[in-house]
Amino acid sequence: MRRFALFIVILLTTEIRADDKGDGFMPLFNGKDLNGWKERQVPAGKGGYWSVKDGILTAKAGTGWLGTEKMYGNYVLRVEWKIVENGNSGVFLRVPDTDSKESPSTTGFEIQILDDNGSQYKGKLKPYQYSGSLYYYVPASKPMFKGVGEWNSYEITCNGDKISVIYNGEKVVDADISKDPKMQTRPKKGFIGLQNHGSAVEFRKVEIKVLDD
Asked: Which residues are within 8 A (CB) of 176 and not within 5 positions of it... i.e. 6 or more apart?
C-alpha cells in the first residue's frame, strides 16, 4: 500500500512538472478544447469559427476574436502561429472590455500577425502594421517572418509600463508605455485574445507565466 501511495505521489509530481516545465510557464491553451476561452464580438447566431484538432487551435475565416475568460496584468506570453497567404491576425493584450464594439487593438494592445510577403501588404503598409509590431505604436525593429505555412513564435512580456516582443528568437519591440501619452490611456490589466481577421490562422503552444500583479 505504501509503495502504491508513493507511486501516485511520483506520478502527480511528474505531471505537474510536465505542465510547468520548471520555468513557471503554464498552458493557457490545453491543446484539446476551448476550455478557458470564449469567442467575442461575433454576430448574433454566429460563432463556431474556432476549433481544436491535434493540439492546433484553428480559426476559419470569419470575424471577432477568441479571448481568455480571465484577465491578466503582468505576464510573459508564449505563442506559436502560422498564417495563410495574405493572412492577417493578431495577439491582443490587456483588453479591458469584452462587450465593447471597438476593436481590442483600440482599447488594449495588439501584436500584429501578418503575411508580410503577401501581395496585399508587402511595401504597402505603415511600418507598425507588419508582423511582430506593437500595432499603432512601435514597429518591429527587423523583419523576422518565416513565411506562409511556417510556424513563427512570439514571446510577449507585459510588465507594468514595459511591453516587449521576442519574435523567432530576436527582440523586435521594447516599448515603454510611460513615454507615450496615448499608450498611457490603455489599461494595465485585461483579457488576452487571438484575432480572427477574415483569414485562416493557426495557433499552438500558448503558454503564460504570470508575473507579480
From this structure: 161, 162
